[in-house]
Specification:
The chain is built from six helices and nine strands. The protein is of the alpha/beta class. The chain binds glycinamide ribonucleotide.
Length: 206
């Protein structure tokens, strides 16, 4: 059976599309995106997933407490028998319940070199701080914001002429690249978590 991935989004869904492209092209072998879930009814990524023939739907979060909402998400993911969850522009913190249901099986991508600039508008935060390099991070998700063990990072230079939008676009290209690599590593089991450190095993020779 193919390895089943669930993707959580809140908006545009370009990281989801990059993962879907990688699955389709065999860069993430023997896997499928089993479901795409959005907490926002208007997320463009839902329509993009459906257009690719991938099951996708919104589960609106308004009016629900964090854990009550996460119980709906976990049930939907369990129903599709996913073994790995990729947050891809999913703009919600998750509850301890969610994390414990999928311990070390939830990844997130964030558009900065964590622990710098967690939270919203990380690219704007980087510009305003005046850093010369920023980037993106794929990390395991725990119940704290953008704080779980770091799997992969990529460095992106900041140019004097950057606006938040220009910088975000430059970072996004690296996000799409390292998210695929991160999913491969996790599905291959080529890593160990020791405390906060994620140690990577060399690629297997086939
Ligand atoms: C991406 O840049 C992602 O790193 C960021 O939102 C964007 C979503 O784009 N996520 C966060 O800031 C999470 N804290 P996408 O919907 O096109 O993938």
């Amino acid at each position: 059976m193919k390895r089943r991935i669930g993707v959580l989004i809140s908006g545009r869904g370009s990281n989801f599309e990059a993962l879907a492209d990688s699955v389709a092209a065999g860069r993430i072998p023997n896997a499928e995106i089993a479901v795409v879930l959005s907490n926002r009814a208007d997320a463009p990524g839902v329509a993009k997933a459906k257009a690719r023939g991938i099951e996708a739907r919104a589960i609106p979060s308004s009016g629900l407490e964090r854990e009550a909402y996460d119980r709906l998400i976990v049930a939907a993911l369990r129903q599709k028998q996913v073994e790995l969850i990729c947050m891809a522009g999913y703009m919600r913190m998750v509850s301890a319940y969610f994390v414990s249901e999928f311990r070390n099986r939830i990844l997130n991508i964030h558009p900065s070199l964590l622990p710098a600039f967690p939270g919203l508008e990380a690219q704007r935060q980087a510009l305003e701080h005046g850093v010369k390099f920023t980037g993106c991070t794929v990390h395991f998700v725990d119940e704290r914001l953008d704080a779980g063990p770091i799997l992969l990072q990529a460095i992106v230079p900041v140019e004097d002429s950057d606006t938040p939008e220009i910088l975000a676009a430059r970072i996004l290209r690296e996000e799409h690249r390292i998210y695929t690599e991160a999913v491969r590593i996790v599905l291959d089991g080529r890593y160990r978590i020791e405390g906060r450190r994620v140690l990577l095993d060399p690629p297997q020779k086939h």
